């Protein structure tokens, strides 16, 4: 595993910048919009999530370039062009924007790891065949925005958030037949680190034939799950366990036999709390609710789309190649 603890020396970075693919004026990354939800909240000394804004823009066309840029200290906008083959989970330093060029940017075979990192944006990338997690946000990382990506063929978690991480937004992604889509909370025994943390917003994602963990939550509160499209989810949609607090609203569940677990817990994990409202259940089971949850509006304002409109909105807007289209701004 690549450690994020070593900065690339200035001379080495200069040489990489000189050898990188040129950045054409008409191919610059799209102007970033601010995330909604927890990644936009001013907290922990961070004013929202701005990624690499203010830093230089570079283009990675090889794994060597990509890994070096991830490990560079200071703000950086990293354009990913073509397919980058990596292994394991690679550390990402703070203040980075990692953005795919066009609709063909791929990170294959490995994933990204956040270890005490912050202020990172990951957009418009297709993650394929990760041998572990595709995106692993942990170890007190905060202000991370995962937006308009696609996940397929991931061995473990597509996006996992654990070990005290918080102020995360996961928006407009396509989870294409993933298995363990999203775990929030490391384990049943990790309450001392995760209780009061793991504040996460999950909105306008397409959970397409994905099996479970959309998300599975331990301890975190509030976890806000809204305006997502759940389709053909064989095991379950959302599981709130170990006294987590999850608000589920404005989602559209289609052919999801078990949309929500909470009062009964899940597997070996004890019960959590879950509030549901304004959801559509089309050919799906009932959403199990339990207790009360801190309201997301305590932290941020948001606009809720009607759940009946969610399938069309999400199909049109989720995934790669969409951030320049006329889709609702996340």
UniProtKB/TrEMBL annotation:
Similarity comment text for this entry: Belongs to the polysaccharide lyase 1 family.
Keywords: Carbohydrate metabolism, Lyase, Polysaccharide degradation, Secreted, Signal
Organism domain of life: Bacteria
InterPro entries: PbH1 (IPR006626), Pec_lyase (IPR002022), Pectin_lyas_fold (IPR012334), Pectin_lyase_fold/virulence (IPR011050), PEL (IPR045032)
The protein's name in its UniProt record: Polysaccharide lyase family 1 protein
Signal peptide location: 1-25
Subcellular location field: Secreted
The keyword NAD is annotated on this UniProt entry: no
Keyword Signal: yes
Domain Pectate lyase: 53-259
UniProt-listed PANTHER family: PECTATE LYASE 18-RELATED, PECTATE LYASE 21-RELATED
Entry's Gene Ontology molecular function annotations: lyase activity
Family annotation (SMART domains): Amb_all, PbH1
């Amino acid at each position: 595993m690549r450690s994020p603890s070593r900065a690339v020396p200035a001379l080495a970075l200069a040489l990489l910048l000189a050898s990188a693919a040129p950045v054409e004026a008409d191919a610059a990354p799209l102007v970033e919009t601010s995330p909604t939800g927890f990644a936009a909240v001013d907290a922990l000394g961070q004013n929202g999530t701005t990624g690499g804004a203010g830093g230089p823009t570079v283009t990675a066309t090889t794994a060597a370039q990509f890994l070096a840029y991830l490990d560079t200290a200071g703000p950086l906008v990293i354009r990913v062009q073509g397919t980058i083959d990596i292994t394991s989970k690679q550390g990402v330093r703070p203040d980075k924007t990692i953005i795919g060029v066009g609709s063909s940017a791929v990170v294959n075979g490995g994933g990204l790891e956040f270890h005490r990192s912050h202020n990172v944006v990951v957009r418009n990338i297709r993650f394929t065949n990760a041998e572990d997690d595709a995106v692993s946000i942990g170890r007190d990382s905060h202000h991370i925005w995962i937006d308009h990506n696609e996940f397929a063929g991931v061995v473990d978690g597509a996006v996992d958030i654990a070990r005290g991480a918080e102020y995360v937004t996961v928006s407009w992604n396509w989870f294409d037949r993933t298995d363990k889509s999203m775990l929030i909370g490391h384990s049943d025994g990790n309450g001392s680190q995760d209780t009061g943390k793991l504040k996460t917003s999950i909105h306008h994602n397409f959970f397409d034939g994905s099996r479970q963990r959309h998300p599975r939550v331990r301890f975190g509160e509030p976890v806000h799950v809204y305006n997502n499209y759940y389709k053909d989810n064989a095991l379950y949609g959302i599981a709130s366990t170990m006294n987590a607090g999850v608000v589920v609203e404005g989602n559209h569940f289609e052919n999801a036999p078990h949309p929500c677990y909470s009062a009964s817990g899940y597997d070996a994990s004890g019960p959590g709390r879950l509030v549901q409202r304004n959801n559509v259940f089309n050919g799906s089971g009932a959403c199990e609710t339990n207790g009360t949850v801190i309201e997301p509006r305590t932290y941020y304002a948001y606009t809720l789309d009607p759940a009946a409109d969610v399938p069309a909105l999400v199909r049109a807007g989720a995934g790669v190649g969409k951030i320049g289209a006329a889709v609702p701004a996340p």
